[in-house]
Amino acid sequence: MQEYITIGKEKVPAPGLGTYQLTGKEGEKSISFAISIGYRHIDTAQFYRNEEVVGNTVKNSGIARKDFFITTKIWPTDFTKKNFVPAVEQSLKKLKSDYVDLLLLHWPADEAANALGTDLLLECHEKGYARLIGVSNFTIAQLEKARKKAPVFCNQIEYHPYINQHEMVKYTQKHELLLTAYTPLARGKVNTDPTLIALGKKYGKTATQIALKWFLQQKNVCPIPKGGNEKHLIENMQVFDFEISKEDMQTIFNLSA
Ligand code: NAP
Predict the structure, then answer these.
(1) CB distance 161 to ligand 1 below 6 Å
(2) Distance between CA 227 and CA 35 in Å, rounded?
């Protein structure tokens, strides 16, 4: 069962599914399994070279496109008038969809390219190619500039219990933005963390489930764990039948203090 983060009139399914390195037949199998157990938020990027796999899997699922929340990202070398819109059109073709739910600038470039990239995001939004637009790996200062030019919905950043993102979390919460947490499991490291294992024992959950719940109890924060393994994909969804106490939330925040 998937839950949703509500921001204005938007409902973002959480957790999302990270798909970096989910490619080819194996990738299709994992994504298809994830959809079958309820994942509806799928994170891809041009850089991952798997938009076609995502598009095929979503199409073949038989589930209505409107029930998915699909994000893709454009690489900084395409933040040009000549390249940007055609790059997005290429993504849509591969994703077999007329639109993406969220279109992101994958990484910041220099100030002029970020400004142009933001204008081009807006152009894609106005063309109907992207329901929502946003950025990834932007600092607060870069985000402020982008927000002056366009209705930015999201910043996707690296965030897990070993990275202190307090200022960015506070900023996105204050401005009602989505903060998508990438590499939320520190590439699997959280699963062997002694503090998280101890908390897992207390709540009858795994260390990974504790980490995922910690994100979900932070307003507007959506983790997108990657899972190729079916057991992992199931486990990462079973995080809605318990709640971490305020004190234990703080213990997890202290891991990055
Ligand atoms: P991650 O989600 O932190 O970790 C993935 C690793 O954790 C995989 O090895 C996975 O194994 C393992 N894992 C998953 N569930 C587990 C569980 N329940 N127990 C134990 N291990 C588990 O790393 P990530 O792929 O770097 O980040 C997630 C997503 O964020 C990416 O896939 C991508 O969509 C996005 N991302 C975005 C950016 C950006 O610049 N915007 C950068 C990096 C990543 P299996 O695969 O074997 O299940």
Answers:
(1) no
(2) 12
